[in-house]
Amino acid sequence: MTMVVFDIVLFVAAVLLIIGLRKLSHPDSASRGNSLAAIALALGVLVAIFYPLQTQNNNYLYIGLGVLIGGIIGVVSAKKVAMTEMPEMVSLFNGFGGLSAGLISLVWLINNGSSGTASDLGVVLFNLFLGLLAFSGSIIAYGKLSGKLKDEHLKIPFSTAVNIILLLVNLGAIFYFAYVGVLSTLHLSLFLVFSLLYGVVFVAPIGGADMPVVISSLNSLTGITAAVSGIITDNKLMLLGGVLVGSSGIILTLLMCKAMNRPLLSVIFGNFSSAKGSENQVQGNAKEVTPADLAVQLAYSQRVCVVPGYGMAVAQAQKIVKEVEELLDEKDVEFKYAIHPVAGRMPGHMNVLLAEANVSYDKLLDLDDANSYLDTTDVAIIVGANDVVNPSALDDPSSKIYGMPILNLAKTKNVVVLKRSMNPGYAGIQNPLFFKDNTKMLFGDAKKSIEVILRELKEV
Amino acid sequence: MDTIITFIEQNIEIIYLLTFAIFLGFEVISKIPTVLHTPLMSGSNAISGVVLIGAILLIRVTESTNYLALILATLGIILGTINLVGGFAVTGRMLEMFNKKKNKKK
Q1: Domain boundaries, chain A
Q2: What ipTM did this prediction achieve?
């Protein structure tokens, strides 16, 4: 009788999870969706704790301790993290989920003496591989996003070949050990090392601008490993939840790839960041503008548009940009933001940043709307964006980003680029936009530059 | 070959569920506006914290004297809980930020 009750609760949880995810993908209901999904999983956890099992071991002390410690760490870090650190936080959480799935496989192996039927052992090893890969990959991504790891420290020679060989070794090992039916501690340790290594090789060569793709694909991987863990422990809610995460992650990954006009495989094997082509030799004289001149220009414009990029996140300039928006609002200058889908380091990065600064929805323009707006804009201010406004994507077939949809500033009357120096962007590509007649540069830290502009604006 | 056949026979229910769930996932999240990319990602990231359930189920059947397994499983529970609780908390915070603004507009 009690069994049926538990099964029904688990079924209700599964339905709630689907409804929650559905609501999460609509702006009006997203908040409720998040709560519903959380309730669904809480129900699932309660069932897992109290479901009648054959054994009397239970080990409730360990479970309680684990949930308590994990819960405290989770809540505190979620409360403390600044909105600007969101990308690295998400990849860290994601890595933890992956490692947890890997540990499930490991405990299964210990409990079963590292042997089992071919299908059991195959699934468990596959899950171990996926979980550890998601873990080490996410940790590398975390390091890159938080600036603790620099791209140039992560150069792996022949990375494409190494990637493929390691993948084949790992998959081969899974089939071999599943066939043999047992694996020794040495073999297991080697398998652990190779799985972790693959995650590093998978993420290390993929550079800055491709980070949104990396994060969403790692997210998807953790989902898949959660689903496989569900098969191992025979839990339908895990299977369902994992698959939903896996497929939503794939959708997001493909969306990001589409926004860059590059196939997924080219992102993974592309080594985009390390490549340096001969095309970089665009030369010319970049003209500078003073903050005072710019302030005057802004005050007498009709339409102003800010194009934010990762540089805005680095300089923490979103709040000060919002102040400029308010000031120009008083002067009846129309002020919008042009958001490129892959601006920043995770999907939707700029939206989160600007939301934090209380910029309202209707000021944000997506790619198509932004491009028609930019055609009639008086002044466009580029705050820390580079590759997403590079006209080479439109007119230079030899360029690596050729074909990528960009924010097109060709018809914009005046373009001002806030930038630290003339260094090319993350993609390592020189930007001909900087040398155009109607483009002016304002060198220095974006936040400080805008502070000066703001002060000048108040005096105009 | 025999292994594959037995695997399919034993798990046919799972295979059905898996296939339907994949389609369901694609359908549920097909048209997602740019504003929600990050919340959806961190929300789905939180959902992958379901691995916690697996860690709990496994530790319950682990021998109470097998300390290696107990420690690893407890670590799995801790990490899974961080992913789950932290993920939902962060997503909630983010969505609150979006909502706050909408209320102001009204």
Answers
A1: 1-80, 84-274, 284-459
A2: 0.91
Cβ neighbors of B13 (< 8 A, separation 6 or more) are: none
Distance in Å, alpha carbon of B12 to nearest chain A alpha carbon: 12
Q: CA quadruple B93, B94, B97, B103: dihedral positive or negative?
A: negative
**Residue range A5-20: average pLDDT?**
94
Which A-chain residues 367-396 have CB contacts (< 8 A) with chain B? Answer: none
CB of A241 closer than 8 Å to CB of A226: yes
Residues A263-280 have a mean pLDDT of: 58
Chain B nearest CA to A381, separation (Å): 21
Flag whether residue A346 sits within 8 Å of chain B, measured between CB atoms.
Answer: yes
Chain B residue at shortest CA distance from A232? B54
Q: What is the pLDDT of residue A246?
A: 93
Q: Looking at CA atoms only, how far is residue A123 from chain B in angstroms? A: 11
Give me chain A's average pLDDT, please. Answer: 87
Count Cβ neighbours within 10 Å for each residue of A141-174 and write b for 16 or more, e otherwise.
bbbbbeeebebeebeeeebeebbeebbebbeebb
Residues of B in contact with A71 (CB under 8 A): 81, 85
Cβ pair B82:A96 closer than 8 A: yes
Nearest to A254 by CA among A263, A246, A245: A263
Report yes or no: A214 at the B interface, CB cutoff 8 Å. no
Residue B36 C-alpha from the chain's centroid = 19
Query: B34-69 pLDDT, tens per residue?
Result: 778 888 889 999 999 999 999 999 999 999 999 999
Spell out the alpha helix ranges (H) of A344-403. 349-356, 367-374, 392-395
Inter-chain contact A348–B39, Cβ cutoff 8 Å? yes
Rounded to an integer, the average pLDDT of A404-418 is 89
DSSP structural state of residue A436 = S
Q: Which of the residues of A are catalytic?
A: 387
Nearest CB partner across the interface for A41, out of B28, B50, B74: B50
- The whole-angstrom distance between B101's CA and the closest CA on chain A is 6
Q: What is the pLDDT of residues A302-329, one digit of tens each?
A: 999 999 988 888 888 888 999 999 988 8
Closest CA to A409 of A438, A449, A369, A441: A438
How is domain A284-459 classified at the CATH fold level?
A: Rossmann fold (3.40.50)
Is A185 at the interface with chain B, CB within 8 A?
no
Q: Is a pLDDT exceeding 80 seen at residue A282?
A: no
Q: Which residues of B touch A53 (CB under 8 A)?
A: 57, 60-61
Q: Does A360 touch chain B (CB under 8 A)?
A: yes
B48/A366 CB distance under 8 A: no
Alpha carbon distance A346, A10 (integer Å): 33
Rank A279-288, A359-368, A423-432 by mean pLDDT and report only the highest: A359-368
User: According to the model, what pLDDT value does residue A279 have?
Assistant: 44
CA distance linking residue A334 with residue A383, whole number of Å: 18
A288 close to A442: Cβ distance less than 8 angstroms: yes
